[in-house]
Every structure is written in C-alpha cells, then in structure tokens.
Amino acid sequence: xxxxxxxxxxxxxxxxxxxSGIGAALADGLAAAGANIVLNGLGDEGEIEALRASLAExxxxxxxxxxxxxxxxxxxxxxxxxxxxxxxxLDILVNNAGIQHVAKIEDFPVEKWDAIIAINLTSAFHxxxxxxxxxxxxxxxxxxxxxxxxxxxASPFKAAYxxxxxxxxxxxxxxxxxxxxxxITVNAICPGYVKxxxxxxxxxxxxxxxxxxxxxxxxxVMLKAQPTKKFVEYDQLVGLLLYLASDAGxxxxxxxxxxxxxxxxx
Length: 266
Hints:
Layout lengths: L11 E4 L5 H12 L3 E5 L4 H15 L3 E4 L6 H15 L4 E4 L14 H29 L2 E6 L12 H21 L4 E8 L5 H14 L3 H9 L11 H12 L10 E4 L7
Parallel strand pairs: 1-2, 1-4, 2-3, 4-5, 5-6, 6-7
Helix pairs in contact: 1-2, 1-8, 3-4, 4-5, 6-7
Organism: Hyphobacterium lacteum
Protein name: 3-hydroxybutyrate dehydrogenase
GO molecular function: 3-hydroxybutyrate dehydrogenase activity
C-alpha cells in the first residue's frame, strides 16, 4: 500500500476570516503544505500585510489578500473570482469567518442575530455557490466549513450562533450530496474551545467578574463541557484540515468531525 501524500503544492486555497486566530493558523498550515493562499478578514492594514508577507516568505508560496466583507454577497463572489483570476484555479475553500454574541433570547438584539446569521452561515452559501462551478470545471475541489461543537449540541444564550452552526452542518451535507460525483468533497470541522487571543483575553476578565482564579475559569467555565479539560490546539485543527484537503481525505464527504475533547460524545 502506498502512502497518500498531503502535499498541496500548486493548489490554491481561500480561507475566510484568516487574518487572525484560527483562520490564520489554518492558512499557515495550508501554506506549509505548499498551497498558494488568499487571505480574507478584518484588521489593521499593516498587520495584515505583515502576515501576508510572512506566510509567503516562510513557506515559499504566493499569498494574496482580499478584503471582502462577509455580509456583502457581491464582495464574497468577487473574492472567489479574484482567487481564480490570480492563480487560474481554486482547489480549497475554507469557510471560517464568524462572530459571536451571548444574550437571553428575549433580549437578543435583532441586528446581532442578522449579523451572525449573515457572517457565520450565509457567507458560506455565497462562497460555495461561487466556488463550485470552478471546482466542477477542474474535476476536483475541497470545501471545508469550520462549524463548531455547537453544530452538534446547543448551549443557552447563543441562539444565533447555534442556529448558524447547525445551519452550516446542513449546508455541508446538502452540497456534499450534490457534488459528490464531480470530485468535490464538502466536510465540516467542529472544534470545541480553542485558545485564541480573544479567548485568552477573556480569562482574566472572567476570573475578576466571578471572583475565582484563572485556573477555575478555564476548568469550570470555559472547559466545563470538554472532558479533557484542555483547549483544542491550532495544530490539531490544521492536521485534520490537511487530511480533508488532500487526497488522503478523498472518501470523506458530508461529514462532521468533532475536535472537542469529547464534548459531544455524551
């Protein structure tokens, strides 16, 4: 039996929400495997350019940036068209962009609901809709949607986020069935808590607000639902992403892959 390579040399990947956190880590992992990258997301222009240049120099690949707003369908379509025009192909689409808001359902701001559904769910519809014709023409493509443990289970006070992530899983499964014979796979990665800069910044604030130690915040608040009591590491998500994006994952289609320390096992 021959080992199947996860080399992505010569391929092109678009990753939404990739200027920081999980998205930036995923972009770095794909670039390390040889893929040319189109970054997308918000942030300081100088910091984004520094990230773009760093990835290109570190991995010896081409890296571009497109500023598409994930609430604007025309800009999203232009992101996909830009990637195709720059590199002549689009092999990997990673839908990672997302925001969060926590509130009781009766107090949930309508504008927050609309924004979360637009960015966390509807933007993926628009990227996929634009990318599939390109991938069909190539006879191959990989679409990986960053869902969440909340695509599989619910938590209180997160109505919009949980609804959007459940929707992402439904979208994943539906499109997977439509494109299966075209050499395209569509899968969802469902992380538990990841120690992003945003999460790290919340630890001290939560400890102060609750009058408990930072260790207790991590164990009893943030990681209460994760049996391992450990954050998911970036590299663990990258490892699964590379599997799904490469020929190694060619028979995985329409699946949800929990990376949550056992959260959804119960």
